[in-house]
Specification:
With about 50 residues, the chain is an all-alpha fold. The chain contains 2 helices and no strands. The protein has one domain.
């Protein structure tokens, strides 16, 4: 897989989740969000083109 810069659009609920993780400082919740939301969006963005 070739890496390149990507831009991601986050839904309102995803933004809320990021802010909640930052406030709670919950490492497991942060990791879960990265795995279930961010990683999937990055992979999808890299597959385009």
């Amino acid at each position: 897989m070739n890496l390149k810069p990507v831009q991601l659009q986050l839904e309102t609920e995803e933004v809320r989740c990021i802010l909640q993780v930052a406030l709670d400082e919950d490492a497991q919740q942060a990791l879960d969000f990265v795995k279930t939301v961010l990683a999937k969006k990055v992979e999808k963005a890299l597959q385009r083109h």
